[in-house]
Amino acid sequence: MATIKQIADKAGVSPTTVSNVLHGNIGKVSPSTLLHVKAILKSENYTPNMGAIMLARNNSRIIGVIMFMEPRRDETVLEDPFSSTIMGAMEAEIRKHGYFMMIHTTSDEAEVVRLAGTWRLGGLVLVWVPATTSRVIRENINRPVVFVDSYFDDDGIGYHNIGLDDEQGGYEIARHLLTKGNTSMTFLANDTVAIGADHARFNGCCRAFSERGLSLSESRYMPISKDSVERRRFYHRVAGDLASFGTLVFSADYYAAEAMMYLQDNGIHVPEDISITGFDDNVFSRIVRPGLTTVHQDVYGKGQAAISMLMKLIKGETITECDVRLPVRLIVRGSVRDRSAG
Q: Residue 209: which domain range?
């Protein structure tokens, strides 16, 4: 691989100029020189030395990404389509800005706070962090931080977050079910936290029911187990008492598809015997039969937006909208029975 001096000779500039381009110190580098040097670096397949960059700058040019979640048993976090998609989007965007990504997954709140405080980072992205942990991090971490899909207490602290209009997603699903004459449902949640995406989605369902003069009891909110054996036991209960559960409204396509396949394998027809819906519109919703009625979200765009916001914070730019809630839309397929005709 070419050295910095060889790159400089080829570009007709000083080694210091090449080093400045590599380290992002481009305040005194003209736009034409910057493009010229970058083109030669690319043509030479030059790979910067991370150790040298960290020594040369107080900013390590590493963006830390911590995913706060407990994976399903016997699986890794990145096997989930949502996780792999958003990670891919963030990595591409981070690389585009000349930074590097460091990933960590945990469901330990104390570990999140410890890592956020000890890693030498240019910035930090935290995915699905609970409100209490978010507050501690914002009070103790003095570097740019962007949250993803997080909800916060009304504590007067400023948070930067890229999330989703979760309540509207739940509303759209429930309104569709009611339009089709499905007035009984059970909401299957991913987590048990009191403030978060799942409760927002359930609240949206409650709003749709309220508009029809109906009520949806809190008992219809059921967190689903991360353990596949326990989930199969639950699906077995559903198969034995379809009327009690009504439509199964899952907060993730993965579980909706899994339940659909289990029930079909045990003689239950979807949607003739039971309706099922999901959330995300990922690959699982499209490969099951019938196709899964769900809520679409732009996961890749969410990852890009999070890094774009973080880079503005790193550069000291003004953020006009700090808590962004991206839009959703209903995707109607064949997993909901139309009972409206009687």
A: 166-297
